[in-house]
Amino acid sequence: KTNMSVLLTGFEPFGTHVVNPSWEAVSLLKDKTIGGARVVAAQLPVVYETAPVAVQKLWDSCDDVVACVHCGVGLRGKIRLEMRAHNDRYVRLDNASTAPATGTCVAGDKSYIDTSIDLEAVLGLLRTRMEDSDQHVELSLNAGRYLCEFTYYYSLHLRRAPVLFVHVPPLSDELTLPILAQRLTTIIECVLSVCRTTPASLPAPVTAPDVSHQTLNAVLSPSASLVPRPPITRQTSVIMGRPAVGLGVIVKSPRQPGSVLIGMRTTPGKFGDRCFALPGGHIEFGETFADCAVREVLEETGFEIGDLTQGPILNVCNEQAGYHYIVIFMIGTIQGESDEAKNLEPDKCAGWSWAPWANLPQPLFATLQALVDTTFNPFLSS
Considering 68, 71, 148, 275, which one is annotated as catalytic? Predict the structure, then answer.
């Protein structure tokens, strides 16, 4: 009988995921022995206030933990091994329609924490143990800024044992539940093997904070969700005299033919106030264009998008306003069944609505106006 444990978690259903494949796969592995370690599994709530409590309880239930693997559902395509978790910008509402008032996981802690597990070594082992592993598994620096990354950061913050977050795709005809469970088993075996051969250098464990107060600070109720949050600090590439780089997302829906999602900016005193714009923002370090598009749309509207393609790249400059951006446009389609967007950044946007591409409301934000002026049409295949 093994005296080692590996913690394994998945999430309850949320949003359009009426069945969450992360928990379905994890539940099949509960109490099994993988790589010489007993699997201790738990389902986590998609609620900011209670998820850390459940994570803390799980860690406290075992004193022989060699690794922790959190799992959540991600985008279609590959399984993604997340390299990093961020501490801020948690604005998307959870299953209880709440979000941390300050947008942070652990007050006063680091802006991000990287996993101590050598994931390049894990990928190397996977290539020897999983057929066509490069087609099924990849590394990622974007864990999504929702309960997945929130939970990941909290476990990394505890510094008790090596921690990894694994994003699994939705189930499909090609990716059945047994196949997903087997791939997850192989990933855990490789993680444990790497942890044994290259022991992680972990700082001393921290004393767990009172997760109901310090960690979450304060949780907004639905009625208080429109209270402006503190401004979010973003690093841009702006250097004196040089343009910045931004990304705009043309969001489409099969139920809204010929229309795109736009919102009115509410940034008093700033360039573009009261103008209509696409979802979008700045590209974070390590992100691909597609990663940025998915994250920004999710953070601003709550929509998950897929079928991503790249559109034009424009040089947009307004010298009088001191505005100069290189803007990449991405095109994506809503993956869920609802077309009702949530206004998750009410301090920056008056709300989201669908508008015909051929008859967009005025005035348009400079970047969207520049795109329209090119006569580009996102609904033409060419």
Answer: 148
